[in-house]
Specification:
This protein is an alpha/beta fold. It has one domain: Vaccinia Virus protein VP39 (Rossmann fold, 3-Layer(aba) Sandwich), CATH 3.40.50.150. It is 38% helix and 30% strand. The chain contains eight helices and nine strands. The strands form two sheets. A seven-stranded mixed sheet has the order 3-2-1-4-5-9-8, with helices on both faces. The protein has a two-stranded antiparallel ribbon with strand order 6-7. β1, α3 and β2 form a beta-alpha-beta unit.
């Protein structure tokens, strides 16, 4: 593993135990069908999803090769921003979008193209608050981009990022599914969250 990949892995898995605890608290199933984009070396999948039918992807072939050695499943090298499994017809019970910064483009492609179970658990790692405060560029979860020049405008979004901007968008986007459970935590400018949803 080169230094760049090592740094990416370290950034992606700071407070690894908290990521695992979030998932243990929400995960409604252990042996279903799971989509794991940004699978990397398969750390989270190895810890939690070994009993599931895994369909995983990552853009770095060295890391997908490492994940294949640790896990059974359909693990490929692909750009996770697009849906990488067009020939997979099974219904997914869970998906884990553990991207260091941008999970929502991958989520939207999954949601529009994949088959989904009636009850699902979804996880997200979101680093957009960093860019928002540092540069004023706000990448919204629907894919729109906005520049907030005024610091006070940035703070308004920053301070209520999850409850006012991310979660309401998500709850509306997944309709007719309804959120029946959710949980989140913050680490600095990073947002980690998950939700259990059900088609009602």
């Amino acid at each position: 593993m080169n230094q760049g990949h090592l740094k990416q892995k370290q950034k992606q898995h700071v407070d690894f135990h908290r990521k695992i605890l979030l998932r243990k608290n929400l995960l409604h199933i252990k042996q279903g069908v799971f989509y794991i984009p940004f699978i990397g070396d398969g750390d989270i999948a190895f810890e939690l999803y070994r009993d599931a039918e895994i369909h995983g992807a990552y853009i770095d072939p060295a890391r997908t090769a490492a994940a294949k050695k640790r896990l059974c499943g359909n693990i490929i090298t692909a750009n996770c921003d697009s849906w990488p499994f067009p020939d997979v017809d099974v219904a997914f019970d869970a998906a884990d979008f553990d991207s260091y910064s941008e999970p929502y483009e991958s989520f939207r492609s999954f949601w529009e193209e994949a088959n989904k179970a009636n009850k699902m658990t979804l996880f997200f790692t979101d680093g957009h608050k960093q860019g928002l405060m540092r540069t004023g560029h706000w990448h919204q979860p629907d894919g729109n981009k906005e520049y907030l020049e005024n610091v006070n405008d940035r703070r308004k979004v920053f301070n209520f990022y999850f409850p006012k901007h991310i979660f309401p968008w998500f709850a509306n986007y997944v309709k007719p599914y309804k959120v029946i459970k959710k949980q989140f935590y913050l680490r600095g400018m990073m947002l980690y969250w998950g939700a259990v949803i059900k088609n009602v």
